[in-house]
């Protein structure tokens, strides 16, 4: 028992839990915490320019460390700005804790300056939202926040911190470090799975998602290589296994390989390990329907509430991903040719061919990046059609090499790349952003420069909210409204922030520009000017607008 202020006590609990970095936009509501951090060099305090960017960084940091990423924001506007990161962490099943400075306890429920009921506001967006009114209970709340964020389906927790509570001096006992509770596999369930696999003629494994890590990736890839069962990544989980795995067959989501879709439809057994089978992965619950007639479904997930909630399951296994994959290694089965066949389809689909009449061909840009950048480069992106070129053509090296929101949030790529660079400064990191996506959090270039991040930023500029323009042409051809963008000179903007930057307008100029960017240090930005007509790797706006309609 030691006597400390609430602010000091809170920082001490974060140290015990292994927190090494906090992302913040400072606010007067948690000055006591900032004061304690002044005397805590073991925690790197990253000062961001907007709370949404700070929350995205914390979400990405949690993805990389498998412990909660930490963000501090102030009440009212700060919390509402940060809510986007909480939503992403929830839909992505990533551990995160958002601390929100709050009004004094004595002024609560008077609609005081910037007052919000944070427990009510965040309850639908996170696993647990609470308010700490007694400083002596800070160790209890912080330990519980870590446990909730990491166990079962990982996700975000929000804790509100009354300003005066942080100034209270109290006696309190520290809580020990929290670790994820192991979730082993039931032997009977694994025996049942072995029987299902033995009788299946066309099994397919769909992987990635809640609690997935490098141990799970290694074991599952080894099992798939041995058995020949095709391995498919869920939407934006393409780093679930190294893409050079001989049984890796590609990814589901938007713009997938038609041959892969046919393979999923033809499968008689689906082994789903980790994904929730959400809307994007299942093409609006149509590729795999909730009742999936003619297919048996084995669903493995760490959250019992997820199992059976949407999909009828023939076998539900509540287990951690590492524990399940370790148990799966012992499951034998007849060798199959499906993995090799699916692999050939994937390699053909993910090899970009030159596209006639395109001035800046993003497929060839990805090919140049594959030739020039390390295989374990971390690729970070937000939302937009531009990401489809990398989803299709980039080869991810394994867990921790893809940071991309399954929630489809714009503005995620740059903050995520900053978090990745600060987490591993020696690693190659690339942020991808469309012109609309970039300007949602482009101000975080200042954060990257200030904190010495090293990364390459590619801004793909087609002068439009391209994805929405594509939907307009599909639903209301020729009636464009609200999707055109007048953009700045992104290279000049980057230089104003202190970055190295170049503008690229032709395919043949990209590789050399990338080489010059690699030769520089710090933050480097390439402004890629593209044609909005070339809307995806597979089609154009004109083709969408003129296609026959029922």
What features would you describe in this structure?
With 550 residues, the protein is an alpha/beta fold. Helix content is 37%, strand content 18%. The protein contains 20 helices and 20 strands. The strands form 4 sheets. The chain has a 6-stranded parallel beta sheet with strand order 3-2-4-5-7-6, with helices on both faces. A 6-stranded parallel beta sheet has the order 11-10-9-12-13-14, with helices on both faces. Strands 16-15-17-18-20-19 form a 6-stranded parallel beta sheet, with helices on both faces. Helix 1 packs across helix 2 and helix 8 runs parallel beside helix 10. The longest helix is centred in the N-terminal third of the chain and has 15 residues. It is globular, with a radius of gyration of 24 Å.
Q: Briefly note the structural class of the backbone.
A: alpha/beta
**What average pLDDT do the residues reach?**
96
* Strand order in space, largest sheet: 3-2-4-5-7-6
General shape: globular
Low-confidence regions? none
Report the total helices. Answer: 20
Number of strands: 20
Q: What is the CA–CA distance across the termini?
A: 73 Å
Biggest beta-sheet profile? 6 strands, parallel
Alpha-carbon Rg, integer: 24 Å
Helix content: 25-40%
Strand content: 15-25%
As an assembly, this protein is: single chain
Short recap of the structure:
The protein is of the alpha/beta class. It contains 20 helices and 20 strands.
Keywords, separated by commas or semicolons:
550 residues; alpha/beta; six-stranded parallel beta sheet; 20 helices; globular
